[in-house]
Specification:
90 residues; alpha+beta; two-stranded parallel sheet; 5 helices; 16% strand
């Protein structure tokens, strides 16, 4: 079996370092009804909230403070890759 590790001083080290330097940090933002309660994604599960009760949070789930332009500016300034998603299920 051949080792996949590269020894210091090996010609492959600069290539490995270059790949590492090209990696980007990522920013993954996601939110759903659980955001209203500010108690994590597993809010409904951990507190055993019935679907019909959990669905009532939709009335308070707004995007009034959402600023996509500010998020994109932040991601670009920080050299982050950005992915936005949301949970639309009640």
């Amino acid at each position: 079996m051949q080792s996949t590790t590269t020894q210091p001083g090996s010609p492959a080290v600069p290539a490995r370092l270059q790949r590492y330097e090209n990696l980007a940090y990522g920013l993954f933002l996601h939110w759903g009804l659980y955001s209203v309660q500010a108690d994590g994604e597993w809010y409904r599960f951990h507190h055993k909230i019935p679907q019909e009760v959990y669905g009532q949070l939709m009335q308070r789930f707004t995007a009034e403070a959402f600023d996509a332009d500010a998020l994109v500016r932040f991601a670009k300034k920080s050299r982050l890759s950005l992915h936005l998603s949301y949970d639309a299920s009640p």
